[in-house]
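Before surveying the methods themselves, let us examine one representative protein, written as a sequence plus integers encoding its fold.
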Amino acid sequence: MANVSACIQQTLPFSDQVQVADAAAELCAGYPIASRSHQVAITAITCGAVTLPIVILRCFARQLVTKKIWWDDWLAVLSSLVLATIIGLQIKSSEVGFGRHYWTVNPVYASLIFQIFYAFQLLYVVAQVAAKGSLMAFYYRVFPSAKFRIAAKLVIAFLVVHGTVYLGLLAFQCLPLSSIWDKNVIGKCVNLTATGYSGAVCSIVEDIVIMLMPIPELLKLKLSRRKKAALVFMFSLGSFACVTSMVRLKYLVAFANTLDPPWDNVDLVMWSVIELSCALICASLPTLRPLLRKIPEALSSVTPSSHKSSTYEHNFSPRYAPARLSEERQTGRFKALPPLPPDAHPGIAGLNAGHFSNKKMEEIELQGLEHSGSFQK
């Protein structure tokens, strides 16, 4: 049947193809129709259910710690909104026949499927550049090294140039544009195979560079090996996004030359959505650290404290306070008290302002420990 469909598409005008499709639908009525539409919908919904809450938590964590949304957060929000649009389009396309063989798609919806796929290509580029730009903007804000920031600017510039060029090639892949979705119109198209491969290779190179860039800066931090390893692991999660980009590259083979696009492009679309989700998740995970540090504090605040309260009343009642205060002064135990954490109450943290006065908020926010001399063991 695939060979027959290819022959029909290559020899008959589109109006005749519609008549053949109608006749085939009548002849094959009642026979099971192969479909992967449910895979498209499930993948899109799952990626949205995992990714979008993480971006929301990212913004909540930023408000919790710095009371301000930064450029990297806005880029993540932009990317997530575009991803949500892509997910909605893919769910719609699965309802009208994307994921089925071309000869089993209702001709009424054929143009709509091609229009959705065209929009998907453009939105994919925007979401990808915004997600990677978000991570690079986060690196630029957190790491103060002048050389690192120059490198970050160069990577961001490359992302913008690559994204703009690739977006332009996809936007005007065929002229007139209507020939992309209206098979009655004969158009002249660029080499989509070369465009797809070049864009995918650039994306993989970008993923590798973004994954490796922060590691030298993290290794410079005065931390234990365990803490360094944990940080390097957290910032290296972008390697999974790189893997998804490589898997997606495999499915670009059928991107331009297929005669069965609703079926052959299913894997390409699904892995593209997975890639975008991984990029957004990897860009957001490092920013969730302050929120994760708040969870133990919140849990401890709601645990029963009757024992602690009675101990406090016993040790610090007026009858015992002078004796204990004198004892602490004699032993010098007050000198061993660690500095207050950066998220302490402003009125209390002010007593220890000398310890944090020269630290940038974003440096403290990154880990809360890296630049503190109290954790060099």
Observations:
- The radius of gyration is 28 Å.
- The chain has a mean pLDDT of 75.
- The beta strands are 174-175, 188-189.
